[in-house]
Amino acid sequence: MTTSTISTQYLEKLGFAGDFSPTLAHLNTLLSLHVQKIPFANFSSFLGGEVSLESDQLAQKLLRNDQGGYCLEHSTLTRIALNELGYEAYNVLGRVYYQGTPSRTPVRTHLVTLVHIDQQLFLYDPGFGGMTPMMVLTLDQIGETQQTSLEPFRFVEVAQSGLDTTVLTEMKYMLQVCIHDQWVNVYAINPEQQIAHADAQVANYYISTSPESLFTQHLMLSIANSEMRITLKDRVLRTHGKGGSNKKQLSNFDEFERTIKTVFQMNISDEQLQASWGKLALT
């Protein structure tokens, strides 16, 4: 298989119907379908397995085997697919500040795809898990609220993030989300720092192997649609949506297996499921 087939497989996986042209409307459609069809998941790193960023293996895992992946996998794949579809897309690495106020600069580990359309720059990020934006966001409206089907988002200058400049090294814009009427920092990026594939590989090695990485310590899954987000962290299943929030503790393996296969629609082997549940039982 060659990378020239990635975009075809991507459209088939997402169920995109009709003729395709590289427009903003179609980009939003792709993102909406992506977060519904390709789950955020980290089974490989949680179980100590290899996480590849090579195009053929990404297509096999995310598009054909229904196994999901995390941000470095999602955004490497989408960069390839979007460029094949006629967009001008590239990757940058961001620093994550969501649910934390670090005392030192976080490692650049969150990979996103940026897309140029009609001299404007847009964020295409289906891979941030439980708080990934549900639509394409523009970086040409800094400070302005951008409403998605679920939460409002905005980009601000990092100086407006409320964080000390010492923990924002080389970053330019902070993505924020409004939760319970408060703006919360998500992650910071610098759109001028286009990366090489080797940079993503270094970040991927850290994320998938370091004992300090959340992705080796915790099992994390997410899927979303225009009405709700569904997340799993270890054994806790959460639903957040327009109708409210719900939290449930998975109490046995059968419930865990059913959740993975039906809620997240993932094709995970029985061996991996048993190994994951066994590791979760120890924490």
UniProtKB/TrEMBL annotation:
Enumerate the Gene3D superfamilies for this protein: Arylamine N-acetyltransferase, Cysteine proteinases
Q: What is this protein called?
A: Arylamine N-acetyltransferase
Name the lineage: Bacteria, Pseudomonadati, Pseudomonadota, Gammaproteobacteria, Moraxellales
Which organism is this protein's natural source? Acinetobacter courvalinii
Which Pfam family, just one, is annotated for this protein? Acetyltransf_2
Q: Name one GO molecular function term.
A: acetyltransferase activity
Family named by the database record: Belongs to the arylamine N-acetyltransferase family.
